[in-house]
Amino acid sequence: MSSVEAIETAIRQLPPADLAEFRRWFAEFDAAAWDKQIEADAAAGKLDALVAEAVAEYDAGQAREL
Questions:
Q1: Distances (CA, A) of 40 to 24, 28, 52, 59
Q2: Please, which residues have CB within 8 angstroms of residue 57's CB and are 6 or more apart in sequence?
Q3: 22, 11 in Cβ contact below 8 A?
Q4: H/E run at residue 36
Q5: CA 37, CA 25: separation in Å to the nearest integer?
Q6: What is the pLDDT of residue 59?
Q7: pTM of the model
Q8: CA-to-CA distance for 4 and 29, rounded, in angstroms?
Q9: What does the domain layout of the chain look like in residue ranges?
Q10: Could you report the per-residue pLDDT of 3-45, keeping only the tens digit for each?
């Protein structure tokens, strides 16, 4: 059994309250990992083309408010 399979098995066996707590924790963990990756990508210039495209669309009047 792999580590992932063991984790899946353990999660399936959690009582509802513990599963809810795990979901809350994992959502925070996942969001923090995502934020860290976006920050690293931005610092490395990996998002520069997307930023330039968005600014060009805005300057051309093609943007709309959300």
A1: 25, 18, 18, 27
A2: 63
A3: yes
A4: helix 16-43
A5: 19
A6: 95
A7: 0.69
A8: 17
A9: 15-59
A10: 999 999 999 999 999 999 999 999 999 999 999 999 999 999 9
